[in-house]
Amino acid sequence: MKREVSTTDSSPLLETQYAEYHVERTGTVWTAVAHIVTGVIGSGVLSLAWSIAQLGWIGGPLTILFFASITLLSAFLLSNTYRSPDPEHGPRRSSSYLDAVNLHKGEGNSRFCGVFVNVSLYGFGIAYVVTAAISLRAIQKSNCYHGKGNEATCGFNDAYFMLIFGAIQVVLSQIPNFHNIQWLSILAAITSFAYAFIGMGLSAAQVAENGHAEGSIEGIPTSSGIEKLWLIAQALGDIAFSYPFSVILIEIQDTLKSPPPENQTMKKASTISVIVTTFFYLCCGCFGYAAFGNDTPGNLLTGFALYKQHWLVDFANACIVIHLVGAYQVYSQPLFANVENWLRFNFPDSEFVNHTYFLKLPLLPAFPLNFLRLSFRTAYVASTTVIAMIFPYFNQILGVLAGIIYYPLTIYFPVEMYLSQGNIEAWTTKWVMLRTFSIVGLMVGLFTLIGSIEGIVSAKLS
Fold this sequence. Notes:
The protein is mainly α. Helices cover about 70% and strands about 5% of the residues. The chain is globular. The termini are far apart. About 50% of the residues are buried.
């Protein structure tokens, strides 16, 4: 049997997550689909109706299909970089996105990439704290209005709900690694389907009640062409951000059993996931726009705040919170591994860093407790919660975050790694097509970044 080696023997900062441990990989197509759906179908699905409203009935759906195609191509390229030199039988595994970049493009590129990866993972954590608080507040607000009347004055403090969400994450963050959260991903994936279906169903019911579909081919009218241009850029950013899962793909692939080869399983899981998410995105986005037209809200569920069956809207918001509990872990576990492995490499004799204790509570199995894990992950969750409390501007900050990380992580590095692994010569047909794909992605990324920054400036000045 061939010995599987770490791809990062010369790079302690990018040390393989599980190099020191034997890991039994038991993942299947369906556990991979659950992980992907958990990471992709987030609360962003509820903003797609607003995006389609900016782009119109033709541009909106076509843009969703365009980004679905980009995401799937990126996933196919990236899944082939998990093993090396052969994508199916190579003895060298990459356990993370950074491992793969280090192997195929060298340590310099991997450190540069690491900035984008860790910023994106940390940014997702902050965004999920803000979004969960918004959904929790919506539940309380709905109950207040329906209990005291629509004119009632109900005071709600986002910080209170952020602290609740943060406390939950402190506990869940003690889960040792990505392999131990499959159950959480499955639960989160189920709830994501639930609130997507509810949003879709409520919108369809609203269309039926109206007796016709709202909206137009050109989308929401604006006072000037430049205003329309910026809104289109922001809409593209929202859609682009709602798809990619490149930053967690390698970690997910590292949980898959073999045979069959992991890249084949991952391509199948990616295809299923992109088809499922695209179906939900089109349904939620199009039904939402058809229901509200030019009055389409930024968050689809807020349009039903006074809906007579308010318990259904409350349930949908509760599903969002449960989903975000899982999604926070899906995006945080890779960052936990990066930092903790670096510390273990640099302090191999530290008992605080390396020693694991087993905590035994009545009626529960023994739980592995490591002081480094306890202190670092608690501090990490606390920091994302505090920053979310200081800057609770989900849509604007998320748009800028998407503009910064979309091109390098979803297009540039997957293309460059694929070209290096396959030793594809310059100016061949495949080389030209991939370079064109990369350049187009760069232009789209810059456009969405500029539009999102303009949106923040305009919102701040207004």
